[in-house]
Each structure stands twice: as structure tokens, then as C-alpha cells.
Amino acid sequence: MDAFMVGVGVVIDVLRTVLLSIALVFGAICVLDWAVRARKISPFNAIARFCRSTVDPLIVPIERKVVRAGGTPAAAPLWALAAVVVGGILLLTFLDFIRLGVASSGHQLLAAGLSLLRLGAVELCVERADSRANAAHRAEPGRAGRDTNPGVFPSQPD
């Protein structure tokens, strides 16, 4: 169980690094596309042509939603970046939640198993003590039904 949890932790750490790298690259592309759309970069520049031919087809679905919601088309790359960042955070949070749930379940199962073992050991000890007491009563037939310590709890007269 511990090896599994360490493995899942490593996978989450690698995924965190990969998502951060993707977000940084996507952020640079979105800022560049925003600069082209907001006319901060000349529309006839080679960078602007690259953005219009490569990046814009990826941003068009988000641009439609932003315009439908009342935003400007120039803000679409920034909304796309926000969606990537929030999606990555939600994915990492979900995976961490699952990892903690599995770890908690494993610890609870282990604790329950130990509790059952402890309960079984107590029951075994009680059962042995009862069998010893019954054996002692059978060994002394004349004292059957009488207290072994009449000074503390005297029995009723016969």
C-alpha cells in the first residue's frame, strides 16, 4: 500500500510539473495572440501571420463563447489561458482528493483489521478464563454453587 501511495505521489508531482510547463507555454502563446488581436503587434508582421494561421483556430471556439457572453474577441486568449489554469488546478485537486481517499480507506481498513484481531484476542482470553473457572468448579464438587470468597459476597444459606 505504501509503495502504491508513493507511486501515485510521484505521478501527481510529475503531472504538476507537466501542467505547469503546458500552462507557461500556453500563456506565452495566448499573450502573443492577445497582442496581435489588440493591435499591440502589427497585423502584417510574421508573428501576427503565424498567430492567425496557427493559434487562432484553437482560440475560435472560446472566442465564440466570449463574444456570446458579451466580451470582446481580443479577450478570448486570456479566457483560454484562464480555462487551462483552472482546469489544471481542478485536475490536480481531484487527483489529490482521490489519493487521500485511498490512503484514508487503507488506514481505516488496517485499523479495523487490527481492532478485530484485538477483539478476537480479548474474546479468546475471556473464553479461556471462563473455561478455567468452570474447570475449577468441576474439580471441587462439594463447593458447587457457593462463592469462592464468601467474605466479600456471602452466598445465601442453603
Would you give an account of this structure?
The protein is mainly α. It has one domain (2-135). Helix content is 78%, strand content 0%. It has 3 helices and no strands. The protein has helices at residues 2-37, 46-68, 76-139. Helix 1 crosses helix 2, helix 1 (2-37) packs antiparallel against helix 3 and helix 2 crosses helix 3. The longest helix has 64 residues, at 76-139. The chain is rod-shaped, with a radius of gyration of 37 Å. The model has no long low-confidence stretch (mean pLDDT 79).
Order of helices and strands: HHH
Per DSSP, the total helix count is 3
Share of residues in strands: under 5%
Task: Name the shape in a single word.
Answer: rod-shaped
Structural class estimated from helices and strands: mainly alpha
Q: Could you report the average pLDDT, rounded to the nearest whole number?
A: 79
When the domains are counted, the total is 1
| Low-confidence segments | none
How far is the first residue's CA from the last residue's CA? 64 Å
- Tell how many strands the DSSP assignment holds: 0
Using only CA atoms, what is the Rg? 37 Å
Proportion in helices: over 70%
Describe the sheet with the most strands. none
